Amino acid sequence: RTATYFFIFLNLSLALFEEPAVYPLPFLATSVLEVLCLLVFLGRLTHFAKVTLHNVFWKDTKNICIMVAILLSLTDLAIYGVLRLYDVRSIRWSRIVRPIFLINFAESRQIRRAFRSIRNTLPEITYVFLLFMFSLLMFSLMALKLFGERNLQTAEGLPYFRNYLEIVFDLYVLVTTANSPDVMMPAFDFSSWYTLFFIAFVIINTYIFMSLFLAVVYNNYKKHLKVMPGWACD
Description:
The protein is mainly α. The protein is 69% helix and 0% strand. It has two domains: 107 residues; 111 residues, Helix Hairpins (Orthogonal Bundle). α1 packs antiparallel against α2, α2 runs antiparallel to α4 and α6 crosses α7. The chain starts with a helix and ends in a 9-residue tail after the last helix. The C terminus is likely disordered. This is TPC2 protein.
């Protein structure tokens, strides 16, 4: 189990050293390490197939996912290496499949349980998220109507709240209060009454919707985290 986890995290950590990376290593070094990890995963899977009934092994989707991830990683590595020989820049798209090894090995039952709880929670929080997005879009439309025709400018001299998509992004950031109070200062300088718009936005979206969103996520995740039938044989 320790060896399996070691090579899983080694495989995941290669993203720190592959281009583009903060600490780049030669392609040959990272590719050799990745092939070594994939060979270990393949050997681990082969060993598991030897001690498992044939029909049980091939009915387990975890084993299928691991084999597909190994195949995709090797294919991507080969294509990337050939393109480098011809000085063609490309992207290692197989990086996104590396967490599959962390989730689908038999030793990762607790990680799988947490992942499954998150997956089961997502559909149940969709309604709250859609309601929040509807509120965000409506406030953005109100901001466009309130400030877009007044030729206001930011401190940097840029147009203020004249592009709808930029307004949506600015108000989305305001939900985190990361750009407060800077985002409201041009409107405040024009009229102090406009602060009521931003106060109402923060109260509804930051304090009400975020609290509601957190409560729904917590309650549903806690419900799905309980032991469910069938997990004992997972």
